[in-house]
Design brief:
heterotrimer; A mainly alpha (about 200); B mainly beta (about 300); C mainly alpha (about 190); A: mainly alpha; 2 domains; extended; C: about 190 residues; mainly alpha; disordered N terminus
Chain lengths: ~200, ~300, ~190
Amino acid sequence: MNDCRDVREAIPSLLAGNLGPETRAQLDAHLARCQACRDDVETAIWVGERTRALPRAIAPARDLWTGIAPRLGRRTRRFAAPWWGLAAAAIVLMALSSAATVALVRRTVQPDPGGFAQLELGFQNAARELGEVYRESRGTLAPGTRAVLERNLEVIERALAEARAALDADPSNRALEAVVVAAYKRKIAFLERASAFGES
Amino acid sequence: MIGRQTTAAIAVLTIAGAASAAGQDRQLGFPADPDVALRVYNLVGTTRITGWDRDSIEVRATVPPRGGSLFGGGSRRAAKLGVDGQNPSFTGPPATLDVRVPRGARIWVKSGTADVIVAEIRGEIEVSSVTGAVTLTGSPRVAAIETIDGNVSITGNATVVRARTGAGAVTISGARGDVVVATVQGKVEIVSNELLSGRVETVSGSVEVRTAVPLDGQLEVETHDGPVEITLPRELDARFDLSTIKGAPIATHFSGDVLRQHPRSARFAVGKKSGAGRGASIVVRTFSGAITVRSRSNPSGG
Amino acid sequence: MTAATLALHHDTGTGEATAPRTVDPDVSTAAAGDDRAFERLYRLHVGRIHALALRLAADSDDAERLTQDVFVRAWERLGSFRGDSAFGTWLHRLAVNLILSDRRSAWRRTRRVVPKADLEEEMAASLPVNVGDRLDLDAAIAMLPPGARTVFVLHDVEGYEHAEIAGLTGVAVGTSKAQLFRARRLLREVLDR
């Protein structure tokens, strides 16, 4: 038991009382000189005692069978449109709070781990549709709110354009793909927030 | 004068009716459970929420003439109060709400331009604002603050911190648990004696983090072109993964094994325990932002 | 009704062959298309699956939706259940996979303190009545960041090993271990103040 990693590995056995006397003595010697590991052991014991008291089963507040039974026996169908198009629609539907429809879309669309091009198309569809949702609601926003939202959106879009241009110049660069993906996610997340302002 | 009203299990409690030309200066108190769920609405003006050691909620409010009307209702377990009917274009004096709540309360606050000031809460606090600034002191279990352009300042040991702004600056001081911050262009500053888990995302905001990170802790920063400056203790066990695509070469001021693949990518470890698989994880990624990592004996000393 | 017996010797993971497993007759009947038998299986296992969903999702609405999705998926996949593990174990593994897959497609990182539904409904839909530490720990688990929460629930509550968690979540074993230690520290920080 030479270092902190060994101690960490030994904690489950320690808690279960399975350590042999020699190993236990080595562990105790390490704990005597290492505050960090002492904290870890104490925390594991403290949390473990409370975790063991947790109920293994928690009944739902209502009978969920009524929502399950109608769905049994239905065969899963694939829509004609590719999964990313519907994934984008699902995001828009979430913005419109149609929970039942979102559940339907999620259930019937099987994600296909395709390439970056498909992923980007999905993001673009989602951003376009969320942009439409926002445009429909922006008339209800106070002018000051609208201005601050759109000013921030401009910054996000500028960053996305920059990243996209860099990827265009170096199309096989995986790091740049990750930057573009992050930029799209940021844009979509912000459009969701902006759309929500129109509803509240 | 404070009028106390006892409530049944679920009773609607109305504080005031329609706005009057003379305005309203009102005070009210009603019983509340120690962990009461409370919603507070005040779009324009100032909202102040302070925890105290009583099982009750008390509100002192000043609502100017034609500046909206005060409302409230609920039970010991769940209540809401605030100013209704505010016109965002109203140019008169703003409404002020001064609310006292049990320290363990779980509070949700809605604001537009109203500044929100929260103190001495141990429960949970969530604030949604457009341009109103949010200032939180104390140690709630959860602090979740969202503004578009309002500045956010959180001082104290909130265990779980979530802060999201557009152009608003975010300043977090003293948090030790789990911190997640996202801005568009707002500056981010995080200072702590020790932070277990931190994640910062921004497009163009500058990021400054001065903290220790314990064994098994993590710090992740991602920006588009915002510069990143991280100051850590000299005595540290950590694994670093730093990379920028188009930014200036990375500047690090640590000794240790440096696996430098490229001036814009640096992966290395410092401290003995990081080699034993226990070091903190420090990850910084930017598109074109500058990355600087330095050490000093007391990073949070300023 | 006699129990259907599968004449299989199966591996419990210890390399030892065991006696043939007896499959619950409701499983066989449900696999043949009997939804009343499946409802009995649902009533027997829903508490366990709902507890898992609640702790992983940290949201009662999501937990209900996920619980329903799990049983619908189980119905669809029942034909592939071979009896080489207990039905509950098979169901639990299916639930973990489905819930983690759903979590990966969730965009939001921020947990709402008080969701937008009517407050009284929220109270009714929330975790069970407060009894000492039990609610506190479940509420604290819900506050953990998603990665740490997943590892803590799977490891400390459900008994998965780090290698299994790594396979389920796609994180490295070392990351899973670090997440666990962070989760325990955060929980103690929240509960022991």
